[in-house]
Amino acid sequence: MTDITQKTGPRHVAIIMDGNGRWATRQGLERPEGHKAGAEPVRAVMRAARDCGVSMLTLYAFSTENWGRPKDEVQGLFSLLVKYLKTELKELVEKQVRLRAIGDIDSLPHSARHALGAAMAATAKYEKFTLNLALSYGSRFELARAARLLAEEVASGQRDAQSITPEAIGQKLWTADMPDPDLLIRTGGDMRLSNFLLWQCAYTEFYFTPTLWPDFGEAEFKAALESFHSRERRFGLAEAQG
Ligand code: IPE
Ligand code: IPE
Ligand code: MG
After folding, report:
1. 3-state secondary structure of 102
2. Ligand 1 center from residue 21 Cα (angstroms)
3. Which of 93, 183, 202, 213 has the most beta carbons within 10 angstroms of its beta carbon?
4. Binding site membership of 69 for ligand 1 (Cβ less than 6 Å)
5. Where are the alpha helices (DSSP H) in 95-189?
6. Is residue 137 within 6 Å of ligand 1 at its C-beta?
7. 207, 169, 162: which is closest to 189 by C-alpha?
């Protein structure tokens, strides 16, 4: 294998961690066991990402549409999140990982908001590597919210409609100060975005794998980076201009 650490990028990797439920079913287990098993690949991928010089890892942990799942499953997911945040905080601090979140955080259960707030505050000073959790995240919600914020500024005379550029919209998204993802990985075999970072992925490279999230790990993460490095990103320009 070539030494991927010697090449540039990707700076920001986003992952749709899908397939926990199917993993559990295939093992004859209940779905929550799949979600539980999904914590280990998070650790492994975070380690691998840091080792490979990635500076931001965004994980799709809960979508706006996931609120429609059975109440027990939703509750179980948030108690796992609280457990994860509590047990991993020490490691995040040790490894100097900054924790951030995107999504409608106000809609999360109190315990999750609390654990998230504490972990974000304790790691806010770290700059080299960011773990960004997408929680109650949906791109359409995010874009509608941005439109609403801009409309309010126009209505109050703070800005005129002509100033609504792509940059102005980007500044109203939860990702305002984050780079767009260079690489997006989706596990679980489906080739769709499921309302994840629709705006931000305009020029992102995609890597889809049938591997179910609990089976994903360092080796396949590195394979995804290899695939990324083999691609030519043209950003709409002609080949010779790249
Ligand atoms: C991803 O696994 C985790 C979340 C969406 C929260 P799923 O729970 O969607 O697992 P599958 O896709 O049903 O196998
Ligand atoms: C996407 O997975 C959301 C997360 C991984 C958090 P879903 O399982 O919700 O997506 P669909 O329903 O297959 O599109
Ligand atoms: Mg799924």
Report:
1. strand
2. 5
3. 213
4. no
5. 110-123, 139-155, 166-171
6. no
7. 207
**What is the value of pTM for the model shown?**
0.96
**Amino acid identity, position 95:** K
Structure tokens at 17: 């961690």
The region that residue 236 occupies, defined by phi over 0 for left and psi between -120 and 50 for alpha, beta otherwise, is left
Question: Angle CA(15)–CA(202)–CA(237) in degrees, nearest 5?
Answer: 130
CA–centroid distance, residue 210 to ligand 1 (Å) = 13
Question: What is the per-residue DSSP string for 191-215?
Answer: ---TTSSTTTTTT-EEEE--S-GGG
Task: Give the Å distances, CA to CA, from 73 to 64, 77, 94, 131.
Answer: 14, 6, 31, 24
Q: Could you give the CA distance from residue 59 to residue 74 in angstroms, rounded to a whole number?
A: 17
Q: What is the pLDDT of residues 137-187, one digit of tens each?
A: 999 999 999 999 999 999 999 999 999 999 999 999 999 999 999 999 999
Chain Cα centroid distance, residue 21: 19
Ligand 1 within 6 A of CB of 21: yes
